[in-house]
Amino acid sequence: MSLAIELLVGFSFLVSCQNQPRVSPPPPVDRHTPVHYIGRHGLVVAANPLAVEAGLDMLKSGGNAVDAAVATAFALNAAEPFASGIGGGGFMVLYLAKSRQVAVIDYREKAPAGAWPTMFKEKGEAEDHWRTATGLAVAVPGAPAGWALALRRYGTRSLAQAAQRAIQIAEQGFPVSQTFSDINKDEYERLALNLEEGSCYLKDGFPYEPGEDYRNPDLARTFRVLAEKGIEEFYRGDIARRIVAAVQAKQGILTLEDLAAYEAEEVSPLRGTYKNFALVTAPPPASGGLHLLQLLRIAENWPLRGWGHNSSLYIHHLSEALRFIFADRERYLGDPHFIAVPVEKLLSREYAASIASAIRPDRALGSYPPGEFDNESDRRSNTTHLCVIDREGNIVSLTQSINDFFGTGIVPEGTGFLLNNQMADFSSSPDSLNAPAPGHRPVSSMAPLILFRDGKPFLVLGSPGGTRIFSSLAQIILNITEFRMSLDEAIEAPRFFSYSVGGQPRPIALESRIAEATVDELRRLGHEVRVREAYDKYFGGAQGILVWRDRKIILGAADSRRDGWGAGY
Amino acid sequence: MKKLLNAFPIPILLTLSPILIHATMEETSLFEQPLLITSAGQNAEVQLAAVLAKRAGLNYRLEKLATGVDLENMKTLGLVLGASMKGLGAAGLDIDKERERVRGLTAEAGKKGIPILCLHLGGESRRGQQTDDLMAEFLPLAKMAIVVKSGNADGFFTRICREKNIPLVEVEKAADALEPLRKAFR
Predict the structure, then answer these.
(1) pLDDT per residue over A409-440, tens digit each?
(2) Is A207 in the B-facing interface, judged by CB distances under 8 Å?
(3) Strands A449-453 and A277-281
(4) What is the domain partition of chain B in residue ranges?
(5) How many CB pairs under 8 A join A and B?
(6) Which domains does chain A have, with CATH numbers?
(7) Least CA distance to A204: which residue of chain B?
(8) Quick check: B47 and A188 CB within 8 A?
(9) Choosing among A82, A177, A186, A561, which should be mutated to test the B contact, i.e. which has the most B CBs within 10 A?
(10) Topology of domain B2-183, per CATH?
(11) pTM of the model
(12) Using an 8 Å Cβ cutoff, are A567 and A57 in contact?
């Protein structure tokens, strides 16, 4: 049976949005039931239903995929404020159908000019606090510049038009979801430390309970200002002054000059292949795509289907491979504006085969050295992802973040948006290529991607989840290509993750839906195993679009680990 | 009501009716200050408990990794129940090490005659196997428990509290625990 028919037969519940009024489909009884969103002309998937509607409205009003992606990104700031926004940054991968070109917009945050390699290490035991909860943790935000650049070069709408639905969402508010409430509670300590009294990010000083109304009129006002005056106001105007004041009040070093100097940029995509698929993704400092390709290259050497999905052999081999990859990440990754990252060598089939052959089937190795390459010149993150396809076949795969949920918890006075703690993505080792340094972009695990088959877009995919991003995306891709799952089955399937630090293995973390016998076998192979929740957002919250039969069928899927949603028309 | 309470020992009354449990709490403060607050499971709600204690005007200290030595000069141990992988990871602990820490702490509290107040403030979404295992071990040691109602939808807390004659106070949301917490202390 062809993959196409298998995928269609495997769907458990289909939602048709074709020629229907703009009404969100009813949720399934069990939110984890695989659900697919169908479109004929266009489709949006994102981590929040309100944001999806913003993007879909843009498509239906004639906007293209880039317009819709920015509208969705704006709306995510309003509806999922803890995971991304104008206080953060990200990466956008675009496919332009007419020219068949791929572009990448890099709007990753940058370290302030005053950054230095030991700025966190010298804090001693308080290092983690300084890296995550103080003004020193704030890197120069890139999102407004990135969105504006994307619209200017590839969109058909203005920033003001893209911001409209987000303004409404922030002004009118919405009842808080279980996900929002849980994350609000998780991050309460940092919020209680840094938020001003009366902040909308807490309800009378306590975390929101599900169903309680949340509104952010300050954010709506900020969006209106951006709509009216453009991003200059953010980087050089009143908003800039408020950002600097808030950061410096919390012992930060960000200056007006840092903000004024920030530029998003268009860069060449990172390209690779996996079997008969071609993949494009964001290049370093986004490391996720690079490591995803490494993992897939290594996996090409193994009989994955024969081992079985999420069997002990499968999890063991991929976990060992991940540990090698993290050793490479520690040694070789940094900002390519300043250091050379040996991308080709890391992605070579010979290197992948050498790792594959080093991994033993009968036990964990226990030690994972990095590859030895010349360097010529050479943890944590929570993020959000969205995918859009429009009626012309233009595609956007966008991942953006303020790093930890709720970032630093610092809100510039009267602005309503949260400032990132992206400086925590720099290495704590001052000798690392990813040590803090002036103007450097910290290494990111983000991996927004587009997979092509026979030269045509096949799968658009991405996920939040910090260092778990590329492991989760690789598993989703393998679930589809090797194990013939439907898109949402692939997204909802149980996940696992492992890594190494200093060449030493860390435990395998896995969702509790993985069979107990498999867990026992992994322990017998010498792994330490940590069992997490059944649907644990630790492993990300992926969103994807599958493009079928020359766009005659477009299927979307979103992760129930967060508030993922989709809609097409 | 006062005559009834004088006539019958409190444990018998507490087993008879949840209404009586609440009535008892209105009239009898079970705990003295100062209060040492810690978690069983490194959950995020321990911070909430500290804010509640502050707003209740209590003399308290928050120690996320409290051990027996921290009970010095304390009159009550506040144990906020709930396992958090994130919190455990941040503390450099696994669930077994955390369980050992809390065992040591509660054992020391027992030796010193320091009563335990248990709280579960995260509601239904903060239940799970690891949390339930921890709670099954430590909740029975409590002199009183305050829980968010949705976390007791399956009667988990009711069952244990009834069995062990522990006064149980249910609140709709964490912020509502303020008054029961204030009233629980002399």
Answers:
(1) 999 999 999 999 999 999 999 999 999 999 99
(2) yes
(3) antiparallel
(4) 2-183
(5) 44
(6) 3-266+382-425 (no CATH), 267-381+447-544 (1.10.246.130)
(7) B175
(8) yes
(9) A186
(10) pyruvate-formate lyase- activating enzyme (3.80.30)
(11) 0.90
(12) no
